[in-house]
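Example for tutorial group B:
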């Protein structure tokens, strides 16, 4: 296991104070990451769409201090949020070997989400990507001998140490994370932009997130990933993920929406099948998740509109569709699917580009 020496930054330079502000979006995996090794290394590669509207906005204020050590205050929407502290503390501890300069400063982190808190939309990916973008902005001020590609890779690398899927929220409309033969320069250490031909069918792809269940997940993602160790079907699943990324690479070039739908829906159901066949086993889908899936299949069959679904490790449904059928699908969601959502809530989103610098 490499210790990623290239990302260790030593500097004697010190700033007195300053502040940065970045937004980072959530992302939705088309090929799912489920199972990880030590240090947030994925057991299989994944490929995701980066979103636009569902994002975290985080400001980082820093003041130099004399005594070394990790020191920070944490605010959520302007108010102290102690329940977030352990996760941020662990993040700083994990990135410290690569960013030793963080011990020279006291940080005030103020973060907010554009989507409803506790909506059931995973905020760890967008949150950890946003804070990592801020840390890298500080590093850019401290060192001058690195190029932009290095900083993007390191931002993704740091984000991964906070939350695995966060590494896919830094840059790119589509991102691959995890070493896989079909994608040149792919890495377990960070996400890379999918830099291959993409047919116009997949440009500005739409994702409407149907909020089926906004409660706490019954099983944390960390526990779920660990259940892949010793899982009877794990090895074949990991092989399948590599194969599906290779297939999607060809599909993105050809524009074949029918084959895209097959792989994306199969991946979603496979993810939940792995949960249902682990020990202990669990079911994160709710009755209304299945109602939505069946309604989408019926609508697609009757109209030939190329709409499909994917799921993350929860009950909510991501409805994916090309931009040219946007009005038709969004009418279908409002008229037929919204009744299956908690408080009729859903969010329309679309593919975006990753982190954005909002520093004034």
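The residue assignment follows.
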């Amino acid at each position: 296991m490499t210790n990623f020496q290239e990302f260790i930054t030593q500097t004697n330079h010190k700033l007195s104070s300053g502040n940065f502000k970045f937004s980072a979006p959530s992302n939705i995996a088309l090929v799912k990451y489920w199972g990880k090794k030590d240090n947030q290394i994925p057991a299989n590669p994944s490929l995701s769409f980066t979103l636009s509207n569902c994002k975290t906005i985080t400001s980082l204020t820093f003041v130099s201090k004399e005594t070394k050590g990790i020191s920070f205050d944490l605010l959520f929407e302007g108010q102290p949020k102690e329940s977030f502290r352990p996760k941020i503390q662990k993040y700083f501890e994990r990135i410290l070997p690569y960013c030793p300069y963080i011990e020279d400063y006291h940080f005030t982190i103020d973060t907010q989400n554009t989507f409803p808190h506790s909506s059931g939309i995973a905020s760890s990916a967008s949150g950890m990507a946003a804070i990592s973008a801020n840390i890298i902005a500080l590093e850019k001020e401290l060192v001058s001998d690195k190029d932009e590609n290095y900083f993007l890779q390191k931002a993704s690398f740091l984000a991964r140490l906070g939350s695995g899927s966060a590494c896919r929220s830094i840059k790119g409309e589509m991102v691959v994370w995890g070493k896989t033969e079909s994608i040149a320069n792919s890495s377990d250490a960070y996400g890379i932009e999918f830099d291959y031909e993409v047919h116009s069918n997949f440009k500005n792809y739409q994702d409407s997130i149907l909020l089926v269940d906004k409660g706490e997940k019954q099983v944390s993602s960390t526990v779920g990933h660990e259940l892949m160790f010793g899982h009877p079907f794990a090895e074949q699943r990991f092989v399948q993920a590599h194969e599906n990324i290779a297939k999607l690479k060809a599909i993105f070039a050809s524009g074949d929406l029918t084959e895209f739908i097959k792989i994306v829906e199969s991946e979603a159901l496979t993810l939940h099948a792995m949960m249902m066949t682990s020990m202990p086993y669990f079911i994160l889908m709710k009755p209304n998740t299945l109602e939505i899936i069946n309604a989408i299949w019926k609508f697609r069959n009757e109209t030939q509109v190329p709409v499909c679904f994917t799921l993350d490790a929860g009950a909510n449904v991501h409805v994916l569709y090309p931009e040219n059928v946007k009005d038709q699908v969004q009418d279908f969601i409002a008229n037929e699917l919204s009744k299956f959502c908690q408080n009729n809530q859903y969010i329309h989103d679309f593919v975006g580009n990753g982190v954005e610098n909002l520093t004034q």
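The chain has a mean pLDDT of 95. Compare this with the pattern of hydrophobic and polar residues in the output above.
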